[in-house]
Amino acid sequence: MTDQMRPAARTTRRRGQELVDAIHRAVIAETAESGVSGLTMEGVARRAGTAKTSLYRRWASPEDILVEAVLRHYPQESPTPEGGDLREDLVRALELFRALMGEATLGRALMAVFAEGLHRPELLERMTTEVYEPRGGRFTRTVLKHYAARGEIDAGRVTDVTTDIGEAMMIKYCADNVGEVPSTEYLERIVDEVVLPAVGWAPER
After folding, report:
1. Is 98 within 8 Å of 187 (Cβ atoms)?
2. Angle between helices 139-149 and 86-102 (to 10 degrees)
3. Coil, strand or helix: which one is 194?
4. Phi, psi of 179 (to 5 degrees)
């Protein structure tokens, strides 16, 4: 193979943020393909086109790389600052979560993290403290806490249960309908029939 035919990852020496970005992409792809339990420093380094020693200079384990990579790519919900549009903000929050779930690589990687967390609760706890909370928490939780702080809904109803309902129902939908994501109409039903009644707020008809 001539130098011109060699893959760029083998011939280009990357440094700084460019290298970190490549490693982040690699660990997310590896997780989507092999699951959290299948992550290795060797696999991440090979996919990123770098030496394994480059990884150990910054991270102690592939899971450390994964948490940092997800934090970098995880979206953040921003409710309407002035409030007054709870229903639409909730629907938009679920749409943001749907877009995340629909991303071919990142979405599969996050589902792999969730699956691993079913028998490794410490992983989910780490994701909560190092990813979700720094990014504002779960999407509907961010919206509900914002409206509770404004006094537009009862803060006492914003609990661990009510803030998980929307995303939990979407995950169940995807588990029951493999390869599909819920429609906007379905998201609106989750908001109107489940989330809003749970926090004591009835949409106008």
Report:
1. yes
2. 160
3. helix
4. 90, 0
Q: Are 24 and 65 in contact (CB under 8 A)?
A: yes
Q: In this predicted structure, what is the pLDDT of residue 14?
A: 66
For the whole model, what pTM was predicted?
0.69
Instruction: Supply the pLDDT for residue 141.
Output: 87
Q: Which residue has the tokens 């002035």?
A: 82
Per DSSP, helices labelled H in the chain are 8-11, 16-34, 41-48, 52-56, 62-73, 86-102, 106-117, 121-127, 139-149, 165-176, 184-190, 196-198
Q: What is the pLDDT of residue 1?
A: 33
Q: Torsion angle, CA of 35/40/41/46, rounded to 10 degrees?
A: -80
What 8-state DSSP symbol labels residue 64? H
Of all residues in the chain, what percent carry a pLDDT higher than 70?
A: 86
Q: Is the pLDDT of residue 137 over 50?
A: yes
Cα separation, 186 vs 169, whole angstroms: 10
* Integer angstrom CA distances of residue 158 from 29, 107, 150, 163: 35, 27, 13, 6
